[in-house]
Amino acid sequence: MDPIRNPYAPGAGQRPPELAGRDEQLAAFDVVLERVAKGRPERSLVLTGLRGVGKTVLLNALRGAAVRKGWGTGKLEARPGQGLRRPLSSALHQAVRELGHRDEESVDHVLGVIKSFAHRDAGTAAKLKDQWSPGIDAPAVRGRADSGDIEIDLVELFTDLGGLAADVGKGVGIFIDEMQDLGPDDVSALCAACHELSQSGLPVIVVGAGLPHLPAVLSASKSYSERLFRYQRIDRLAREAADRALEAPAADEEAAYEPDALAAMYDATGGYPYFIQAYGKAVWDLAPRSPITAADVAVAAPEAESELAVGFFGSRYERATPGERDYLMAMADVAAAQPDSDAEDSVHSADVAARLGKKPQSLSPARDSLLKKGLVYSGERGRIAFTVPHFGRYLRERG
């Protein structure tokens, strides 16, 4: 089949041609946008799930919905070891520009507060020549969001930003990807700011996306965090949605799948959106004609698996040290030996240690490093799981 017309998009965070299986989340967010803009109480939103389930794609789709409603939006990606002030300041600068408030004095005031927030590093007084500039022309507003205490400053910043949005009957959405990588102080400050927003009714919401243990990260910071956010677990697609993700783009290119081919694709991908796109692309390129058959899927599967082994699994495996790779392999073996094992099951840390013939305490450095690298997560005390679906199978096949 013509590779130029291949409709599938197996890119990181790249929106697929058919955003299947997420209609419920999109519809619910439209309600949130309308309620917040009208001053109705609403909680901020947190999306959680494994890598490859489409959290970033959905986060971008929600942001697009906010933009279409005339909201001001800004997006940032949290990174380990990076403070919140700089990326958040850039995101909020964009949000203010999108709001289109016509009172220049009010806009300059909020931009000045953002600038003050950006320039104030907790516990330090950086020299002017060393200060990072967020590209804001307005002068910094002294005495607002510049105390050096991130929790105080973020509450003041969000309050002023919410007032600006309320003036024009719109809202502001702050979209944070990889939210679990925020530092403890920044997580605490973000929770406190969301708490203040919920009490004041200002039209500002935070929409975060992260790995499955993100709710535990938030709860460890503030005990009331479970009441601040509405949590949505983003999982693999059900069979019907997975079929639609394949069939709708193909139909746009006047192609189709036989029923057996769709069943084979679901068996191969497990319904994970990233895998659906990867297999879809490989099958399209190698299938001789439409309709695509189960035999075509079988021929293309090694090509898709090879691509995933390099770009999806291999790139993560290469980040691990030899000792960390041993830990990962032991996790895969323990998971495979569990009765009624699912590829995504968590395992006991003690069982991993036993598999390696070592004491659990001696493996803590490797485990902690893997957690920081985002290769594993701990959803509950004493248990560990891969952040990447099918990673255990990849490790066992790799040998």
Automatic annotation (TrEMBL):
Q: Where do the segments described as Disordered lie? A: 339-365
Sorted keywords for this record are: ATP-binding, Heme, Iron, Metal-binding, Nucleotide-binding
Listed PROSITE patterns = CYTC
The coiled-coil regions, if any, are none
Q: Does the keyword Cytoplasm apply?
A: no
Query: Which Pfam family is an annotated match for this chain, by its short name?
Result: AAA_16
Q: Give an example GO molecular function.
A: heme binding
What start and end residues bound the annotated signal peptide?
none
The record's listing under Gene3D superfamilies reads: P-loop containing nucleotide triphosphate hydrolases
Q: Which residues form the Cytochrome c domain?
A: 166-317
InterPro entries associated with the record: AAA_16, Cyt_c-like_dom, P-loop_NTPase
At the top level, the lineage of the source is Bacteria
Q: What is this protein called?
A: ATP-binding protein
Top-down, what is the taxonomic lineage of the species of origin?
Answer: Bacteria, Bacillati, Actinomycetota, Actinomycetes, Propionibacteriales
